[in-house]
Amino acid sequence: MAPLLGVIIGSVRTGRVGPTVARWFVRRASADGRFEARVLDLADVVLPMDLSGGPGVDELTRWVDGCDAFVLVTPEYNHGYPASLKLALDSVKLEWRGKPVGFVSYGGTAGGVRAVEQLRQVVAELHMASVRDAVLFPRVKKAFDAHGETSDGAAIDGAQRMIDQLLWWSEGAGQPYPHG
Ligand SMILES: Cc1cc2nc3c(=O)[nH]c(=O)nc-3n(C[C@H](O)[C@H](O)[C@H](O)COP(=O)(O)O)c2cc1C
To answer: Can you give the residue ranges of the NADPH-dependent FMN reductase-like domain (predicted)?
Structure first.
């Protein structure tokens, strides 16, 4: 059975570009075929800001628990990543641990790279392994055609390297990380 790659759409903004970016990446991962990709759209999950738990948190926790590796699809907002993504990361604890994570970012001229550098600090505290290669889309509104495809060769190459690294880490970890 193929390991499960959880792709999280981090943006919940009205009129967001995030789903276009995420769908493109899922097509790359599916074409590669070594992972089974599953998408979680944070716009569909209700997470309380006070971290008091509830059905949305239970749903997210089960979903995270079932995945072997993750890709966070994130925009850059004011040189950081969106609050929706931080809330999701903070709402789950043990189930993130010991799992690899990669990043697909997008934005203006910097392509979301500042959001990713911040995320790397956060996922380290969650005891995740962030992989080296990432995908970034500068000037995201011009990066995709009407079919949601891109001719950005660096992004296509980066996606493949990231998938290779996520697979290596998810196999290398071997055993689930002991909770606690
Ligand atoms: C509140 C806000 C702040 C933004 N700040 C940045 C920024 O600091 N750097 C950047 O490259 N793009 C910035 N942008 C542009 C976004 O990256 C771009 O609009 C992107 O499409 C947002 O992702 P979304 O459409 O999935 O919400 C900002 C957009 C918003 C809404």
So the answer is: 5-138
* 15-51 per-residue burial string, b: 16 or more CB within 10 A, e: under 16: ebbbebbbebbbebbeeeeebebebbbbbebebeeee
CATH topology of domain 4-173: Rossmann fold (3.40.50)
pLDDT tens digits for range 145-160: 999 999 999 999 999 9
Going from N- to C-terminal start, the domains of the chain cover 4-173
CA of 107 to the centre of ligand 1 (A): 5
Q: List average pLDDT for each run of 10 residues in the chain, which is 180 residues long.
A: 96 98 98 97 98 98 98 98 98 96 97 98 98 98 98 98 96 64
Site to probe by mutation for ligand 1, drawn from 8, 78, 117, 118 as the one with most ligand atoms within 8 Å of Cβ, is 78
